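Supplementary Methods S3. Complex input for the beta-D-fucofuranose-bound model.
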Amino acid sequence: MGLMLTGISGCGTASNDEVSTEQKEELITVGFSQLGAESDWRVANTASIQNSLTRQNGFELMFDDAQQKQDKQFIAIRNFTQQEVDCIVLAPVMETGWDTVLQEAKDAGIPVVVVDRQVKVTDTDLVTAWVGSDFTKEAKVACEWLKAYTETKGIEPGELNIVDIQGTLGATAQIGRTNGIVEASGKYGWNLIAQVPADYTQAKGKEVMANLLAEHPEINVVYAENDNEAIGAIEAIEEAGKTAGTDISKGEILVISFDAAHSGLSKVLEGKIGLDVECNPLQGEEVEKLVKAVKAGTEFNKYTYVKESAFAADDTVKSVTVNGEEYEITVLTDSILSNREY
Ligand code: GYE
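Predicted complex, serialized as structure tokens:
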């Protein structure tokens, strides 16, 4: 197809290298609607996809950052559709609301590869393929760890006073992680005293936690639905004169987080986050393979789950079992941290 790279508001090409018209004709044009830049995870996810969908790898990439606004994602998708890109890559801010805009892409014959969170659409054919994480499993790993950790330390379930700092409401990651803590609290007899969304940002995480501490001085566990919220919460804990750490019996507040980005893991190493469940943002290579297979008409899996692990501040819990499968809990070390890709 011919290329029209101008006229897309807020979009830019991944690289400005000069290529001949002939070369351009061979490139696979991709419009990538990224939901935002709210977290370290997101920044790593954007970079991974941009680094895979390069001209060198045969792509012409148009990128749009929607600043966590679904309306902006609609505009970006409509622009990509109008430009007749070969493929749209969508990292959706929330699950619902996509039927119309994805139908328009389908009507224009443009395949849509969804990454990270999922979309809930009536016609499942609106999504060509998806790659991302199993958020429900991540939550179960976190909750089974908390159960094993507190049991080993001789803390009664009824002594746990947990707050859940939620992600962006309606996002698959939020739904899976929130459901996990709600279910486990019910099942194990923990007190889930509050659930407040903080949009996955550090600033909001801090603000929410400061308010929660003022209202509920008895909090001894923070279940933060991503690293940036956890880091914000730790700031609030310390500003309130309390300690983020793993010794609940001594009045410390145990923080559990998700992502295992470098910023979060450095808090694990300091002992301020007890457990950080990995959520792998490095989806670029998988997206590259998928888009190439879709374009070539060769076989691909409709759903791909990325591999993930979990990191703890100490070795109290060595593994947890979720859905009959055993997951190793890795004690974080300096060398693991310095070798992390994100
Ligand atoms: O955990 C968080 C980001 O959807 C998995 O979104 C993603 C989440 C991730 O903002 O840091």
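The chain has eleven helices and 15 strands. Residues 121 and 222 are 33 Å apart (CA to CA).
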